[in-house]
Specification:
The protein is 42% helix and 12% strand. The chain contains eight helices and six strands. It has 208 residues and is α/β, with parallel strands linked by helices. The longest helix is centred in the C-terminal third of the chain and has 21 residues, at 184-204. InterPro entries: Uracil-DNA_glycosylase-like_sf.
């Protein structure tokens, strides 16, 4: 059921388990990365698999629905926004569970804008630190150009560690704007590519 972060009981349960064992190392990493220079970043919701997840899902940057107060304060596919809803629906359609996945961003600090090249460079080390915590990861799921570009920087800097992350699947961002194009055939092709990538992800987990 999408957008459950809009429900007070669900949101309270996520907040109560913010430092549950499977997400504690990741959310302590987030705490250590928050600073006055780059700013704030959201925790990973305990709905997700945390260090036990087999999938690392990377998007661009945290959106407004991750903000404390106006949003949930978490990265979560149950956030109250269209992009999260689309992800939740597509994961559910192919049989991928929230616990299979840990969400992250190429630039993990909140800017609500396309990250610049230097910011994507800055996002590499946090991503490596996250991967070092996720000892069961088998698939890296890159959604959008910024996620791909951030991963390419990681591969260049840490090629051996990137290989150990397993299968890499790249597709378009789950946001509606990712399909914008004046040619309807291109829009359709992008949508089909995204759907195929989710099916490929499920197959890599043995769900297909």
């Amino acid at each position: 059921m999408p957008r459950r972060m809009a429900e007070s009981a669900f949101r309270a349960a996520q907040e109560a388990d913010r430092y549950a064992a499977h997400v504690k190392p990741i959310n302590e990493l987030v705490d250590s990365l928050r600073d006055e220079t780059r700013g704030w970043m959201p925790h990973v919701a305990p709905l997700h698999g945390g260090i036990n997840a087999e999938v690392l899902s990377v998007l661009r940057d945290p959106g407004p629905a991750t903000q404390v107060g106006s949003g949930s304060g978490f990265l979560c596919i149950e956030n109250d926004d269209p992009t999260a809803e689309r992800q939740q629906t597509m994961f559910e359609k192919v049989g991928v569970l929230p616990g299979d996945v840990t969400p992250w961003n190429a630039y993990p600090w909140y800017i609500n804008a396309a990250p610049k090249a230097a910011q994507l460079d800055d996002g590499v080390q946090p991503l490596i630190d996250l991967l070092d915590l996720m000892t069961k990861v088998r698939v890296v799921f890159l959604q959008g150009n910024d996620a791909r570009n951030g991963w390419a920087r990681l591969v260049k800097r840490y090629p051996a560690r990137a290989r150990r992350a397993g299968t890499v699947i790249a597709t378009f961002h789950p946001g509606r704007q990712a399909l914008f194009h004046p040619d309807p055939d291109v829009r359709q092709a992008r949508a089909e590519h995204r759907e195929a990538a989710y099916r490929q992800l499920a197959g890599a987990l043995g769900r297909g």
